[in-house]
Amino acid sequence: MTDSAPPSPARTPWRAVFGGSIGNLVEWYDWFVYASFATYFAGAFFPKGNDTAQLLNTAGIFAVGFFMRPVGGWLLGRFADRRGRKAALTLTVTLMSASALLIAIAPTYDQVGYFGAAVLLVARLLQGLSVGGEYAASATYLTEASRPGGRGFVSSFQYVSMTMGQLIGLGLQIVLQHTMSDDALHSYGWRIPFIVGAVGAAVVFWLRRNLLETEVYTEEDAHQDERGTIAELLRHRKEAVLVIALTMGGTVAYYTYTTYLTKYLSNTAGLSKSDASLVSFCALFLFMLLQPLAGSLSDRIGRRPLLITFGFGSMLGTVPIMTALSHTDTFTGALLLSLAALVIVTGYTSINAVVKAELFPTHVRALGVALPYALANAMFGGTAEYVALWFKKGGAESGYYWYVSACAAVSLIVYLTMRETRDAALSRDRADGPAAPGKQRTTAV
Fold first, then answer.
1. Which one of 115, 149, 177, 422 is at 20 to 30 Å from 291 when CA atoms are compared?
2. Which GO terms describe its molecular function (predicted)?
3. Do the beta carbons of residue 384 and residue 250 sit within 8 Å?
4. Taking the CA atoms of the chain, what radius of gyration do you get in angstroms?
């Protein structure tokens, strides 16, 4: 149902939030389940040998997926600017479903040698293509569908859905760990979450077909030929560089305390795989609940205070937190330290999507968010786990802690000098004012 009159300023576009987020949940479930189950399928695609070496191989393929994200950011970001946010959201979840299915049916090393690893690689490339466009399409859709003064709160649900996707993956892992033997998990049980992901993505494809296009996008009548072009993005190269720089520290910290955390607690701290998974699950659940609170706070005090808090916290807190985690041998100690790290990271995750979307005009917003963000993730987020394992294999694991701190320090400089974006107008035509008569609104509930 749509409204012909502007909605009350207090109303939140829950239908748009759900539609933009539910697919994001499945996308990131599939993306993160690879990392969550890597300890079980690493030996299936590579020769038997050193466990850390096998994890390095699977982490390398994980990183390759990130290097496909700039391609996805460019192609699907352009697609979202030219064909609409709804069309891009539908396409990305289709690609993700195909990639999950490929991993689920991939043959092992014992069956076909390295061909199985090649199938795994192709699937990760498809995932990278999909996620490269999903982030920007979701960020722009949620931001544009929000009422003025509530964009931080609404866009924070992007990381709520991302985290929920990871929680579902971890939850499924915990269930399988308690219902299947370790041998069964290493043999075939690891395929189950990828089958679930493929089916879930197919369901979301149907749901996303019923989304309304955002009002901000449909009202943008100018710049038709410039929509989503690299030439137009280059006119906003200062903002593009800003996205890369402000993402650098946040993405390294995020992947350190999410995808890498379970392996770190298992390989370094010495916790069992099941305890490490449970620590990650509990910490991420509380982290998820913090996102809307922090997003709403940014609508009141601005985006920069939260980003600056994250920058200082990550720069100064990473070394002591990671060092303490390496020596903890209790569930409670690991949980409290992990949660402390994720509270710091919340200053970045809760608002990074809306900040980037607020930097660009409508006709190049999706590409402007997608490509620079994907480049930053390829360089820093996708390589975080690989760099961490490289330091560990070299016998200098603490060097990784300082690496994370250094990345946060670079981003902190950006946070201290960038402009506040909270009151930025998303549309030049209406400056975030009331809808034109007769226009459909995505804010209908």
1. 177
2. symporter activity
3. no
4. 21
- Structure tokens, 111: 């069956």
Residue 224 φ/ψ, nearest 5 degrees: -60, -45
Residue 124's domain comprises: 14-210+230-417
Distances (CA, A) of 373 to 198, 377, 379, 391: 26, 6, 10, 25
166 domain residue, yes or no: yes
Residue 35 has pLDDT above 80, yes or no: no
Q: 25: domain CATH number?
A: 1.20.1250.20
Reported in sequence order, the residue ranges of 214-325 that DSSP labels E, i.e. its strands, are: none
Instruction: Return the biggest CA–CA distance within the chain.
Output: 67
pTM: 0.79
Helix, strand, or coil here: 210? coil
Is residue 125, in this structure, part of any structural domain at all?
A: yes
The better pLDDT of the pair 439, 74 is held by 74
pLDDT digits (tens, 9 = 90+) for 232-242: 888 888 999 99
Structure tokens at 211: 């989304």
CB of 365 closer than 8 Å to CB of 28: no
Cα–Cα nearest to 126, from 107, 103, 159, 158: 103
Residue 35: closest CA among 138, 173, 157: 173
DSSP state of 106: P
Residue 393 within any structural domain of the chain: yes
* Number of domains into which the chain is organized: 1
Q: What is the mean pLDDT of residues 384-401?
A: 87
Pairwise CA distance, residues 327 & 263, whole Å: 14
Contact (CB, 8 A) for 427 and 216: yes
Distance of CA 233 to the CA centre of its chain: 22
Determine the Cα–Cα distance for residues 281 and 258; give it in Å rounded to an integer.
10
Determine contact, residues 396/170, Cβ cutoff 8 Å: no
Sequence-ordered list of residues with C-beta below 8 angstroms from that of 427, at least 6 positions apart, any chain: 216, 219, 220, 362
Q: What is the pLDDT of residues 321-356, one digit of tens each?
A: 999 998 888 899 999 999 999 999 999 999 998 999
Residues 160-199: pLDDT tens digits?
A: 988 888 888 878 888 888 898 888 888 888 899 999 998 9
What's the CA gap between 275 and 279, in Å, rounded? 6
CA distances from 381 to 79, 260, 402 (A): 24, 11, 15
From residue 338, give the alpha-carbon distance in Å to each of 32, 161, 256, 405.
Answer: 18, 20, 10, 16
Each residue of 63-83: pLDDT tens digit?
A: 677 778 888 888 988 898 888
Whether residue 426 is contained in a domain is answered as no
pLDDT over threshold 60, residue 128: yes
